[in-house]
Design goal:
By secondary structure, the chain is mainly β. Helices cover about 10% and strands about 45% of the residues. The chain has one helix at about 50-55, and strands spanning about 10-15, 25-30, 30-40, 40-50. The chain starts with 11 loop residues before the first strand and ends in a 7-residue tail after the last helix.
Length: about 60
């Protein structure tokens, strides 16, 4: 699974707990997009989570 290149956010794990308190393993995956970004004057395609995109931590290439 991919990680965010900006903040390092990846898959987090835990338990899905039913009403009868039976626990099964579960994964929560971040919303990661491949976007073109300007890095040091050049355009690169990197994996970025939507939280970093919304907060303005990257500059998108057009």
């Amino acid at each position: 699974m991919a990680k965010c290149s900006v903040c390092g956010k990846g898959v987090s794990t835990g338990h899905k707990v039913s009403h009868s308190n039976i626990k099964t393993k579960k994964q929560w995956k971040p919303n990661i997009q491949k976007v073109k970004v300007v890095v040091k004057g050049t355009t690169k395609r990197i994996d970025v989570c939507t939280r970093c995109m919304r907060s303005g931590k990257i500059q998108r290439a057009i």
